[in-house]
Prior knowledge:
Elements: E1 4-7, E2 16-21, H1 28-41, H2 45-58, E3 62-68, H3 80-83, E4 88-94, E5 97-102, E6 107-111, E7 117-120, E8 127-135, E9 140-147, E10 156-161, H4 162-166, E11 174-176, E12 187-191, E13 196-201, E14 206-211, E15 217-222, E16 226-232, E17 235-240, E18 246-253, E19 259-266, E20 273-279, E21 282-287, E22 292-296, E23 301-305
Antiparallel strand pairs: 1-12, 2-3, 4-5, 5-6, 6-7, 8-9, 9-10, 10-11, 12-13, 13-14, 14-15, 16-17, 17-18, 18-19, 20-21, 21-22, 22-23
Helix pairs in contact: 1-2
Amino acid sequence: MEARRISATPRPCNGRRVVARKRPRQEAVISSVRKLQRREISSRRERSFAMNSAQERFRNIQLQEEFDTHDPKENNALLPYIRKRSKIIEIVAARDIVFALSQSGVCAAFSRVTNKRICFLNGSPDEVVRSLFYNKNNDSLITVSVYGSENFSALRCKTTRIEYIRRGTPDAGFPLFETESLKWPGFVEFDDVNGKVLTYSAQDSTYKVFDLKNYTLLYSISDKNVQEIKISPGIMLLIYTRTSSSIPLKILNIEDGTVLKFFNHLLHRNKKVDFIEQFNEKLLVKQDGENLQILDVRNFQLTEQFGISEVN
């Protein structure tokens, strides 16, 4: 699972939930024989077989249950904007509970056992839930919200045990990162692979890394020259402000923040950087109109993928 970053820019939120199950098959033997016949007599056998296989995979999917986060009675206390019915933008499953987040910012919990809504997670009428994250380390749900009283510009994080939600008492949770100023363009990023949380406070240009298990602060990075941070398994890549001919890069141990490598990657002058990405020990650098460069940060061996002028 890759890291998920939520920025502080406000966005709207509502929706509907569908789960699939298999139904008993009819004439399975006859169906298999017919599929083999179509494969053998088709002019394009491989393509025909692949198409039939795809159809077979999805032929038994049917509607099992339908959930709705829109409730005119329950939503009546919310702001007019949040009351509107809108599409679902996130679905999170945690054990026997399914969470659905609508585009207008309404978040509801549904039971897989009873197929009924348990509760809404909006704690106040002006709360707009922006994103959800299931923390399997302590079996809890983290909600990231913005509030109308703060002009929807500051992120607020809250953690609630799944057990409390199952009981229908989401108010039993507690806030996270209260000391952090996560106003736009600040953000919070949840890294499930490394078990870390990265926050950025634009107010003082400080990045902080927290333990996802108990939310304790591990270390801070305060440097106004850091333009971007990217997370990979075991490491973090710090991208600094570029010069005319190079871009400074620093690789840290994500556990304790110790510097593993610091180097300058040479660039073509007067050409913008399309992207810089890191996949484990490989660093991918792409400039406008130039070949894709792949740098092995262990031995600094550089490979260019010629002919790759654009990456979609």
